[in-house]
Amino acid sequence: MRDIHVNDIISAVERLFIDANINLSENMYKAIGDAVEREKSPAGKEVLRELLKNADTAREEKMPICQDTGLAVTFLEIGQDVHIVGGDLTEAISEGVRRAYRNGYLRKSCCHPFSRKNTGDNTPPIIHVKIVPGDRMKITVLPKGGGSENYGEVRMLMPAQGKEGVKGFVLDMVRKGGPNPCPPIIVGVGIGSNFETSALLSKEALMVPVGTRHADDELAAMEMELLDEINKTGIGPQGYGGTVTALDVHIKMAPCHLASLPVAVNIQCHAHRMREAVL
Predict the structure, then answer these.
(1) For 2-59, what is each residue's pLDDT tens digit?
(2) pTM, entire model
């Protein structure tokens, strides 16, 4: 059994959310840079160059990449031999979020669904927990903006609709979003399990590094087919038209009920803010 104090969790969460919102990851910076070379539209090329300049300015000035610094989505993988001491885990995550959004001067976007009254500190965070072997805790933060999140959806397909039904749904969602999710986008697709878990699979799919293909050859081919079809839509960078609408498509799949084919799509913007740490 290994003790992890909540103070260490608070500090890690604060640091990760600030870093994710200010510093574009090397993986994404390279992906956008490579997209400049592939983009055939002059306007699209210029937009991509501007996104890189924006990332440079954010890093140098220690300012958010985007004014929408997102809801505080947090994934925890907790080793079964970990003992959390000194306080409550959920409150520790919440306090880390409070400090990050206050000390990092990040916009607080969390509000009541009807009155729209802001909670004032970007809490409560959204927390997903997995218990895994070992005595470590992995914290992954994925601050998720509203522009991209608004174009996520779960659809319960009939089994007979199969792969073609899944692909049609994904393309429908990309076309529906158009310029609003701030392309070039990343598309996460969750296939199978049930209603709520397919949505979680689609969000987990966003955390796969750009350029990484699924280990299953059939799904890897499906990812590439979807990426090609999405880029043929002509939406282009920031919706100005072009050949790079998406940087990548990632699929996660799980077994489902024999009467169902759940599918979820979650779209991520070009900033793709994500950071992780292991305690």
Answers:
(1) 999 999 999 999 999 999 999 999 999 999 999 999 999 999 999 999 999 999 999 9
(2) 0.96
Task: Indicate whether 251 and 125 sit together in one domain.
Answer: no
Distances in whole angstroms, Cα of residue 54 to Cα of each of 46, 47, 51, 180, 245: 12, 10, 5, 18, 19
- CA dist 177 → 40, 52, 166, 273 (Å): 22, 23, 17, 19
Residues 6+ apart with CB under 8 A from 56: none
Domain-terminating residue out of 114, 143, 172: 143
Q: List strand residue ranges (DSSP E) for the chain, in order.
A: 2-5, 73-79, 82-85, 126-132, 137-141, 153-157, 185-192, 246-254, 261-268, 275-278
Distance CA 4, CA 135 (A): 9
Examine the domain organization and report whether 15 and 126 are in the same domain: yes
Residue with tokens 């590094």: 209
Residues 224 and 160 in one domain: yes
How confident is the model over 135-170, as pLDDT tens digits? Answer: 999 999 999 999 999 999 999 999 999 999 999 999
Pair of tokens at residue 265: 């799509």
Please tell me whether residues 7 and 125 are part of one structural domain: yes
